[in-house]
Write a structure and sequence with these properties.
The protein is mostly helical. The chain contains six helices and no strands.
Amino acid sequence: MDRRSFGATLLMGTLGAAAAPALAQFRPNRPDMMPMGPAEERHALDTLAIGAVALETSRLARDRALRPAVRQFAQFEAEEQSAVAEIIREMMGPVAPPPPSRRDARMVADLGRLRGAAFDRMYITGQVDGHRRLLDVQDRYLNDGRNLHHRHIAILARGRIREHLADLERLQNRTAERGPVRSPGA
């Protein structure tokens, strides 16, 4: 199966997480890239999977978050996750993230039903969880992976993820200090 048809199949969601072993057939999209093995493929898939949830929830938050600081974080996060996905796809070829886990899908659905302060709280909580998981993915790869290009991505991502966790902690603390936030006109 070639990369294009495999990527299209993944996009249709028919293979999902079971597709990971088949990704071992992937070679770098560019001839000047280092070869990729199972550690690189796992790093890319896990980063894409968690990042896709962060992207989807951040797109929701750009419109639904009550607080401007939350909307601003969501805008930056959506832009960053789009960029990371583009970089990974340029390195690996056309690959889509596996479908979200049941837990992530449930969180996205629950978040989609909320607005105002409750939305802000759940979005921030979900982002903290997702960023911690992304940090674990980068750390695991840096312990096991040998591909210099992926290592550079993981090193850069790890620093940004730590920054985002600090930003999210400040957002959580501001929410706790202010108490419940009322929506305009309430």
